[in-house]
Amino acid sequence: MRAILTGGGTGGHIYPALAIARGLQTSFDNTEILYVGTNRGLEADIVPKANLPFQAITVSGLERKLSLNNLKVFWQAWQGYREATQIVKSFRPDVVIGTGGYVCGPVVLAAARQGIPTLIHEQNALPGITNRLLARVAKGVAVTFEDSVQYFPQRDKVTVTGLPVRPEITRSNRQAALQTFGLEEEKLTLLVFGGSRGARRINQAMVETIQYYGNQPGIQIIHATGQSGYQEFLNEVKDRGIELDKYVNIIVKPYLYNMQEALAAADLVVSRAGAATLAELTVLGLPSILIPYPYAAENHQEFNAKALVDRGAAVMIKDAELTGATLIAQLQKIILEENRLSEMSLASKKMGRPEALDDIMECVKKILPR
Ligand SMILES: CC(=O)N[C@H]1[C@@H](OP(=O)(O)OP(=O)(O)OC[C@H]2O[C@@H](n3ccc(=O)[nH]c3=O)[C@H](O)[C@@H]2O)O[C@H](CO)[C@@H](O)[C@@H]1O
């Protein structure tokens, strides 16, 4: 099996592509993979580190408002398309898979025009522009959320597969995880983080929240501030006269490298609503309070959050409404209401798709010539 994978810009498009690459390597014989991205996207750094061959083409993203710069973008897209055509011709893939981001456009299009089976994977409830356009030419469309099916008029091509999570996420054990953090088993564990880079707004609300719950019996908190927000958070805590080291039930870290353990320890999560995070929460059946990042493209995180809220798996607080007080009020409501946590947890688990990678592999098999 020879496959080209493409997708990029941010980690959100690259990690699913890497998971799919691993899936192909285990599901098909003699798999040879080529990853096509741009030199400016994060993929140029991440993909070679994952030991996959990488080739770059020239493309850049369209500005969402009318601008002269977009003329240059169109020219580059044309150039990128010609480069992609050459790459596809010389690599001769059996399949081309795109996971979103503008680099997918020329690559999937070039493959489709050469009659090569193409699959796209969409991570968000509100599909990105590139994927919406590519759905017309792709042979298969795999989506993460049931809610995004409606945006693809080509219904018969669409399969709801979910988003593959890192394998270690489902392998961790609660008891061992609590031990790692030095936390107690009979307390409710709240995990708070704001996506991979942290979220300043969440950190600000957490100052008051930590003061409220500090040394309260029955609850313990793990809070990841994000690398860049760590010092600022500590300063704000100090300015408020809070002595963090006196709170035995609060752990503050810049980043959680062992997220699988933090999730295993958690009973309730407060976070942004990125697709990877939500896939992890639902695969583990974790209830959550979601605060969508309002500046994500086309506000897609709010659509992601809504998918969980509509099914009773989460509660949403809009970023603009987030304060220490609104967060504490929502937390108290969920914690105190009888059976609320277990009902949310059940609803979350129902949305989880532990077999996402297998289902994507089925989509690949379906589009290959018999
Ligand atoms: C800001 C933005 O536009 N983000 C987008 C980006 O998400 P991006 O990949 O940045 O964010 P996600 O929320 O999807 O993923 C964050 C990942 O970081 C991990 N983590 C986080 C904190 C920590 O301390 N340790 C740790 O390991 C989480 O477990 C998760 O796996 O692409 C996704 C898929 O297109 C979109 O849904 C997101 O909206």
TrEMBL record:
InterPro entries hit by this protein: GlcNAc_MurG, Glyco_trans_28_C, GlycoTrans_28_N
Domain Glycosyltransferase family 28 N-terminal per the UniProt entry, residue ranges: 4-142
Residues that coordinate or bind UDP-N-acetyl-alpha-D-glucosamine: 10-12, 124, 166, 196, 301
Pathway participation: Cell wall biogenesis; peptidoglycan biosynthesis
Key word Cell cycle present: yes
Locations listed in the record: Cell membrane
Membrane topology label: Peripheral membrane protein
GO cellular component, as recorded: plasma membrane
Enzyme class: transferase
PANTHER family: GLYCOSYLTRANSFERASE, UDP-N-ACETYLGLUCOSAMINE--N-ACETYLMURAMYL-(PENTAPEPTIDE) PYROPHOSPHORYL-UNDECAPRENOL N-ACETYLGLUCOSAMINE TRANSFERASE 1
Entry protein name: UDP-N-acetylglucosamine--N-acetylmuramyl-(pentapeptide) pyrophosphoryl-undecaprenol N-acetylglucosamine transferase
Record organism: Desulforamulus ferrireducens
